[in-house]
Amino acid sequence: MNSKTKLAIITGGASGLGLATTKKFIEQGIKTIIIGRDEAKLIAAAQQFGKLCSYKQFDLSDTTGIPQLITEIEAKFGIPDILVNNAGINHKKAFTEVTDEEFSRVIQTNLNAVFAISREVVKSMLKAGSGSIVNISSMAAQYGIPYVIAYSASKTAIEGMTRAMATELSPQGIRVNCIAPGFIATDMSAKALDNDPGRKQKVMGRTPMGKLGEPADVAEAAYYLATDSAKYVTGIVLQVDGGNSIGF
Question: How far is CA 18 from CA 32, 111, 196, 221, in A?
Fold first, then answer.
């Protein structure tokens, strides 16, 4: 693949797994546009990565504004070759205490926004006759994890949506795949694990490789799935988890 000619959009591209993926894409010469809510983080990332990195500040939970967002991006940069749907939020709370509003807020960002931005980008990819979409799922879609009901629902839906999209869009040149990260050393995972020693011990006990992953591990998988290295791969959920999903 001549990655120097490629254009990528990464949601949540200024922190965590998204930032690591942005770094990998930039290193491979892919022009990358990062989308997020925190302008300070976006500016810092753009300054860190230089001229190949641009950003758009946008809250993806505002799905009504997504068509205009993509129109603006395409007017300035052209049709994206790659979309990485990485942005997401979590909400840890006992099942019976989760309100309708809290549940809906997670679904809006983690699922509805992924659908809306994918739909708009795919409209242009169809004109080009090619494209690659990488969705980010979670171990919460691989097995039951307590206290994250909305997050689990959203990520399970992402995996089903990945398969449906791949089946419909692959005949038209658009590959759609998914990554299910295990427990990766990020600020989000630290929040979930550091204050819950029992949960952390359980995570490590069922991970055969015996350690947390690094954001770069997910970035490498995203680059593989996004590029022509995976040109005959579509509709898969790739677990990057140190064996956590199969551990005993």
Answer: 11, 17, 25, 12
| 151 has catalytic annotation | yes
Delineate the domains of the chain, giving CATH numbers in brackets.
3-184+215-238 (3.40.50.720)
Candidate list 151, 223, 224, 232, residue with the active-site label: 151
Q: What is the pLDDT of residues 168-211, one digit of tens each?
A: 999 999 999 999 999 999 887 777 788 888 888 899 999 999 99
Separation between Cα atoms, residue 220 and residue 235, nearest integer Å:
18
pTM value?
0.95
Rounded Cα distance between 122 and 41, Å, is 27
What CA–CA distance (Å, rounded) separates 99 from 194? 25
Closest-CA residue to 216 (of 176, 187, 180, 184): 184
